[in-house]
Amino acid sequence: MFCEPDTVTNSKISPDGASSSRKALSSLEKKFQNKDNCFQTRLLSIRPADELCFQLDENVKEIYSTISLSNTLTNPIAYKVKTTSPEKFRVRPSGGVVRPGSPVTVNVHIQPGFENKIQSDKFLVRAMEVTDESKDVAELWKTVQRESIMEHRLRCIINSEPVCSKPANDIATLTEKVEVLQSAVSRIERRQQHVILLQLVFLLVVILAIVSDYWQSLSAPQDHKSKYCQAQ
């Protein structure tokens, strides 16, 4: 049973209730998991791919991990993060919108006293495409068809060795920055193409104007000579 973090709900997410088309889609999406601990779906790029790793450290008062969400479409993507044990975690932000070129980092904090009691817990990331931004996202979640919702599960693990959480978070942060830069470069390239097209059009107009003036200058003396002969 997955619930909204910090909120007790009766919302159940059961794989038995999914349609055959959703199961086929889920199995297809699993093929897109790559080596940099990223899970690529039809709507979002999710990091980490399978395991949400929490690093135990006596010098750290609050243990947390992160989930990185990147939009893979051109439309905004609404998301929700649910967990099997909302009393054990604090998730910020637990829901919202991921826009193209603007990755979202979800911080998952373990509540005090539960540091060694999360091994059996899981998180569920739900996402849907938002094609009409004028509508309230909360209302869209109530009316959206189930087959239009993407779901991905993450299991919680605890690691006491200093190799789990922080390096992964650093890699996720760097990857997010790279994705933002790539998106910015793509926008700049499109603008450059538009500028080049305008320059070519302007150059063509200038050439046509020069050619027109040239032909007019050639025809002007001939007209003058013709009039002069008629006068004699």
From TrEMBL:
Chain ranges passing through the membrane: 195-215
GO cellular component: endomembrane system; endoplasmic reticulum-endosome membrane contact site
SUPFAM superfamilies: PapD-like (SSF49354)
Domain MSP residues, every copy: 43-159
Keyword Lipid metabolism: no
Record field: compositional bias (Polar residues): 7-20
Keywords (A to Z) from UniProt: Membrane, Transmembrane, Transmembrane helix
Residue numbers spanned by region Disordered: 1-20
DNA-binding found in the keyword field: no
Protein name: MSP domain-containing protein
